[in-house]
Amino acid sequence: MKPLRLAAVAGIVLAGLLVSPAGPAQAADTSYTFTHQGNPILADGSYYSADPAPLVAGDDLYIYTGHDQAGPTTNDFQMNEWGAFRTSDVQSGQWTHYPSLARPETLFAWATAGRAYAGQVVQGPDGRYYWYLPVSERTSTAADKFAIGLAVSDSPTGPWTDYIGGPLISQRVPTANDIQNIDPTILVENGHVYVYWGTFGQLRVLEYAADMKTPVGTQKTVTGLTGFFEAPWLFARNGTYYLAYAGNNAGPTSSCTPANYHACIAYATAASPSGPWTYRGTVLAPVSSTTSHPGIIQYKGQWYITYHTADAVGGGHFRRSVAIDKVEWDDTQSPPRMKMVVQTPVKQRDRTPRANIAQEAKVTVSNDPVPTQYWVKALNDEIVRANPLPPDMWGTWTGNNPAQQWVQYTWDSPMRISGSQIDFWNDQPQGSGVGVAAPARWKIQYWNLATGQWADVPNPSGYPTATAGLQNTTFDPVTTTQVRAVFDASTNGSTYSAVAVEEWKVLAAQPASVTAPAITVEVGETELPGTVPVTFGAETLQIPVYWDAVTADQPGQFTVKGSVLGYAAGQVTATVTVISPGDTAGDVTAPTLTLTPSGSAGTDGWFRSAVKVRAAAVDDRGGRMTLTSTVDNGAPVSASPVRYTDVTVSGDGRHTVSATATDRAGNTSAPASLAVRIDATAPVSTATVTGRSVAVSAADATSGVARIEYAVDTGAWVTYTGPVSAPDSNKHTVSFRALDNAGNLETAKTATIAADLSGPLSGNVGPIATPTASYTASWNSVTALNDNADPANPAQAQIWGTWSGSRPATQWVQYDWARPIRLTGAELKFWKDSNRGTGDGVAEPDGWKLQYWDGTAWQDITATYGTSTTAFNTVTFTPVTTSRLRATVSANGNGTTYSAVAITEWRVFADDPGTQPVAPVTVTVQPRCIAGKAYLAVQAHNDGGAALDLAVETAYGDRSFAAVAPGASAYQSFPVRTTTMPAGTVTVRVTGTAPITADYGTLTC
């Protein structure tokens, strides 16, 4: 069972296609020339290209590409041919396009159609052109059928012919390997040919002779490439060798990618074309498509990088388009480094008038750090895809999902809002308690500026939870700096689904009109005021505005247009007066200075984030000033000439910001100061389970704990006042969290109250066991074994599975109970995504067996074991009493490798009398010899305060005793009638209590 990976679909072979016998691929005769300056090179959406591989041939630059042909909602690489772009002047933007230079099935007789992935053309020592191309081998029996073919031509545009007649590289030639053989990159140097290839973190290198096809030595594994994922590109510059590649060391602290579906372009250097390699950093940030693929080359004295994006009209992750930008070098370092590439065109703010204001908000979420398959920036990027991938959304799935999650937007200044549009995503239905489902319910809250508390928005029109398009909610207008959506996760009564949102728009209330005030600037000033006054009835707010670019180069007046955030009616026009900065004669009036904090406002004057304090000044002459600011006891910091300066205050605790403003005439304002209190750290709570109750405590170092809340199972949150007891004998989950006085709400934690196992147990006791396993894939869950769910089409979280790159011959799952239970049977259902005999994926196993723990070792349970993946495999056996049961599974294989194994549900059945009180009886057993024969003497002494009815059971007979008085004993001697007596056990039963046993040893008379 493989996780969804962008290139995982590369292993799918397009079968059943009719293929004509292969012959020379003809030179392209459908080329055309176009002019487009900027990126992507071909941007109109008429043809999508990917995986660029540049080549300099004579005076021309060629960029060879694959052809993306996926539909707008297809999340798969549909690539059936290769093409190329050619130019003799990159800056001119004039390109000749060869849309179809070759197809796998016509170029290579041994290849199937489709999967025309990334290749590279190089010029060989003989002057001919060689095209290394990954294709799918038609008759291969390998686990992965990808191979690298080699075509040759006298011209950069063909015709191309198969140079070898079979694969250059595959899982069997020139030597065996078990990687996916794609993404070749080649360096030809002094008669030596170096070929690198690989993907999914596996990279190989092999040297070839000058004939381009004869191996020299053996293939080697490449190391030293931090975060390597795929798409290597090898080149040399001034005696240093560079290996660029698509990197994917993901996470919030990663220098490369925020999400594991993204890729940056990283690189390493070496003194030899075969390494060893040293990681040097990144050269290209993640692009708009999830994949990234470099091609770096020098052309006419300038270095360039070619790559692909999703930026063309109608583009997407599987509809990519090639771009080209300059590479600049830092030759002050040794070896020289590539500078970060500036992608062009530089993206500009969308200033289209619209009601949505979410795109300008700071986003915070309850599940920080966000799981790396998701991307929090997708929440407010204003992109909604028809068939999104995980990085196109914010999501919460981890396999252990809490009952509630939230997302929050914060603006620097108060905004007037009155609506919301949200786009939920799901892969499971509501009520399933697994996977990702639309929330059971949700609501919108705003930060009430008057009370310093969260409040529900007034009179909402409703909170729809459909997952088809944007869901609309309107409400009475409110003025706030913060808004959040709180989601109650969908549940099946015991577990919770995750939540995912592709886009959340917050809509501004619309004023009747907006009139921009007159603006005064100095000569040379390019920044206009960042806000304009907007009136809503009796309330006037300063709302952000984004102006057209201006240049105030001389005194006078001009008009400028701007887009007011959230104002959908159109742009506003302002008159700008330009003054001379030297006009200070007679100025004796000091500026007016204000300090305004912004951040995530908490309760009681606290902030729950770092705070930006804007020191803004106004001078009666309209000119700019010098602003001097100080934080706490730090050194003063001055900025000049400015109209405002922003001071960042961070760190939990109490702070003071002070500032003064001095105009150009030397007039200084009175000092202004502002107290800032920050508590950005949530309180920490801990729970202690004692018996069948949970006690919770919490601490907060800064503002103090306001309260603790708890919920039992799926119940409502309640204020904690003391230990929480289980409401009945069943297993229960107690969720708990703490809130501090600043308003930081801790992410909920859970404590489990185990089921009371003292009573009789019957039926399926799997759900009250603790499951463990030899290994569990990160996208599966060991708790799926006993979640009491058996869906027809389980999500990955509803399966226990073991897929990994290394799959052993056996795996096991185990249940542990708090006490021994009398077990009578079990049943489990296997899951598969591959056929037996493949040695890959997840396949029906060869077999399995149950084992129970006898106190010192595992003992096999003899039974008949089925291996169905469509029905439960039921096993009944002679009852055993144990606290541990294990199922050991033998994986199926192909003789070399093994498939993984997976189980959707494992039920274990009991017929158990329960744990009963122990009678106050002391049992003494003595084996004896009388007249050469063995006897067993049993005495049961009543230690209690009431008469007891006793029954003594032995291997040599039974005896009952009525009303044995307190302090008295019942005695019986049982004849064995032989000279030897083996070791055994005597059982004494007392009505209403647990049996009492006593062991005895072997005796020979």
Describe this structure in words.
This protein has 1005 residues and is mainly β. Helix content is 0%, strand content 47%. It is built from one helix and 66 strands. Strands 50, 51, 52, 53, 54, 55, 56 and 57 form an eight-stranded antiparallel β-sheet that branches. Strands 23, 24, 25, 26, 27, 28 and 29 form a seven-stranded antiparallel β-sheet that branches. Residues 1-28 have low confidence and may be disordered.
Gap between N and C termini? 65 Å
Radius of gyration: 37 Å
Mean pLDDT: 92
DSSP summary: helix tally: 1
Unreliable residue runs: 1-28
Helix content: under 10%
- Give me the count of strands: 66
Strand content bin = over 45%
Task: Name the shape in a single word.
Answer: flat
**Which structural class matches the secondary elements?**
mainly beta
Profile the largest sheet: 8 strands, antiparallel
In short:
This protein is mostly beta strands and 1005 residues long. A hairpin with an 8-residue loop joins strand 48 (732-740) and strand 49 (749-753).
How would you summarize the topology of this molecule?
Elements: E1 32-35, E2 48-57, E3 60-68, E4 79-87, E5 94-102, H1 104-107, E6 120-123, E7 129-136, E8 146-153, E9 161-162, E10 185-189, E11 192-199, E12 202-208, E13 215-221, E14 228-237, E15 240-247, E16 264-270, E17 278-284, E18 295-299, E19 302-309, E20 321-327, E21 329-330, E22 337-338, E23 362-365, E24 394-395, E25 404-424, E26 441-448, E27 453-456, E28 471-488, E29 500-508, E30 519-522, E31 531-536, E32 539-547, E33 556-564, E34 572-579, E35 592-598, E36 606-607, E37 611-618, E38 625-631, E39 637-642, E40 644-649, E41 653-662, E42 672-678, E43 684-690, E44 693-699, E45 705-712, E46 718-719, E47 724-725, E48 732-740, E49 749-753, E50 761-764, E51 770-773, E52 800-801, E53 810-830, E54 847-853, E55 858-860, E56 873-890, E57 902-912, E58 921-930, E59 933-942, E60 948-954, E61 957-964, E62 969-975, E63 980-981, E64 984-990, E65 996-1000, E66 1003-1004
Parallel strand pairs: 30-34, 36-42
Antiparallel strand pairs: 1-5, 2-3, 3-4, 4-5, 6-7, 7-8, 8-9, 10-11, 11-12, 12-13, 14-15, 15-16, 16-17, 18-19, 19-20, 21-22, 23-25, 24-29, 25-28, 25-29, 26-27, 26-28, 31-32, 32-33, 33-34, 35-37, 37-40, 38-39, 38-41, 41-42, 43-44, 44-47, 45-46, 45-48, 48-49, 50-57, 51-53, 52-57, 53-56, 53-57, ...
